Request: fold
Amino acid sequence: MDVQNLVLLLLPVAAAAGWYAANRGKGGPGGCSDSMMGSDYIKGLNYLLNEQQDKAIDVFIRMLEVNSDTVETHLALGNLFRKRGEVDRAIRIHQNLIARSSLDSDQRMDAVLELGQDYMKAGLYDRAEGLFRELMDGGMHLPSVLPLLLDIYQQERDWNNAIAIADQMGFVGEQPSRSVIAQFYCELAENACARGNDDEACGFLEKASEYNPRCARASLIRGQLAARKGEYNVALAAYEQVVERDIELLPEVLEPMHRCHAGLGSMDDMIGYLHKAISRYAGISPILALAEILGKEMGDETAADFIAGELARRPSVRGLSRFIDLSLLRSEGAARENLMILKNITDQLLENKPVYKCRDCGFCGKALHWQCPGCKHWNTVKPIHGVEGE
Reply:
């Protein structure tokens, strides 16, 4: 529906309100006369006929006198404008409502909630936060206000305030609030790591585990902290815990586990772990990781034969691409040219292909996001499985 159609819908409403206000005000001191209301109505029509829809809408809205009978109409109009993306109009309507002394407390709080959402839609988060805080302090509209405040704090990456708000909620969307709060503490831990404050990071990770004892991300950060200090056994225990808590994160820990075992000189243990992982995990990542080790220790031909055997059981474009790479190292002539053709095909298949997908909204990307950029849910983005994925 375009603006002109919206104005046409407003015409009968404004006309009825004008008639009502004019008749109610006849003869009363300070009342609105028929001529005054008729003048405004004609002015609005004139603006409309001259395709000045903005001015027409302003006139018709002014004709809707604010009283206990029309508050809901004003709220609905403002809400409609906000949903249509016409935030300035929505703000104007709701500000006008709040300024009216005739509103009772509940009506004013309704208007404050709507105005806060207008500001939020306009990206004026500080103003929206102030209004939502006012409502929260008054205990008004908490089921609506708390999620809105939490959304603001997540967008601003204000994790401390996000924790305080989420702690008052049983669920964040459909997710238990405690598991979401654990993610907030992990965000704080990563920020502390980036500043080089490992002790502070460990404190945040303890809090994350208090809220969600099976938080795989907390274990992953613990492993990274330990590996950075050269505490490889501690790091390996943390990385193995990650997989125990969420096997879908196995591809994220294989390379750091390899570095830890290399630092300890315990590559045989890594090989044993990968064999077990292959039996538990349906993806190609542990196979490629084991093939890499076999290639270094036993030669490229052994690595290629190993991948070929696994591809028969679990077809994978990534696996085929690696098999071709290894085969090219020991081929020449026509065979090499044919392999290069296959290599180009696999490269094109993999180019720009997403690696991860949100299990809730279907958002796809090439990087792991702890919070889905699409639906904003936490810990729902997982590796894509299948021939072109894991």
Summary: The longest helix spans residues 3-25. The first strand starts at residue 171 and ends at 172. Residues 3-171 form a domain with the Serine Threonine Protein Phosphatase 5, Tetratricopeptide repeat fold (CATH 1.25.40.10). The radius of gyration is 31 Å.
